[in-house]
Amino acid sequence: MNPKLQYGIMALCAILVIGLVVIGIQQKNHSESLERKIANNSKPTKATKDVSITSEDVKTYKSVVESSIDEFLNGEYTDDDIFEDGTAGNVFYSLFTASGLKGIDENSTDKEVKERYKHFDYELDNVTAQKSVDDEVEVNANIKVKVDDKTVDTGYDLISIKIGENGDLEGGTLYAKQSD
To answer: Which key words tag this protein in UniProt (predicted)?
Structure first.
């Protein structure tokens, strides 16, 4: 092999190694900078004192949740994104989408949503509500899902929905049935 070609390849390899070392050092510095920023951000503490509410308030919050479920079943739900985990809309989506069946997606039309969920109904029982100092309300309820008036086993029997101070649903959780 020609010595000039060998020196050229060695010089190219040396430049490549030096370039990779420089990039690695920059990435390390950037990573450390981000870690410092995260460490310096203080996490706000949330007040946990609960405020008592009346049975009339519980009925009001139950009707808010029921109207939101009805809006979801009619394709009119707009409080949050039904495809984002941890949202009330995702709780409804998970609850009313049976496994093995195709659900709706972001591109579904209102007509498709209404057609998909027209046979579904539900029943809320044992509704409780708890209000925190920051005016958020957490509503818990047992739920039965029905298709054509027949109760179906969804694997879930308890929902927890968070209602913000503005009255919109802000989050939710599904809880699986407990084995006997």
So the answer is: Membrane, Transmembrane, Transmembrane helix
pLDDT digits (tens, 9 = 90+) for 126-135: 999 988 877 8
User: In this predicted structure, what is the pLDDT of residue 95?
Assistant: 83
Res 49: pLDDT: 57
Residues 155, 88: Cα–Cα separation, whole Å: 18
Contact 140, 159 (CB under 8 A): yes
Looking from the CA of 62 toward its CB, the CA atoms found within 13 Å total: 17
Number of alpha carbons in the 13 Å side-chain half-sphere of residue 143: 28
Give the Cα separation of 53 and 161 in Å (integer): 16
**Which DSSP letter does residue 52 get?**
-
Place of tokens 């007509």: 111
CA distance 165 to 135: 5
Residues in the chain: 180
Of 124, 120, 135, 133, nearest in space to 160 by CA: 124
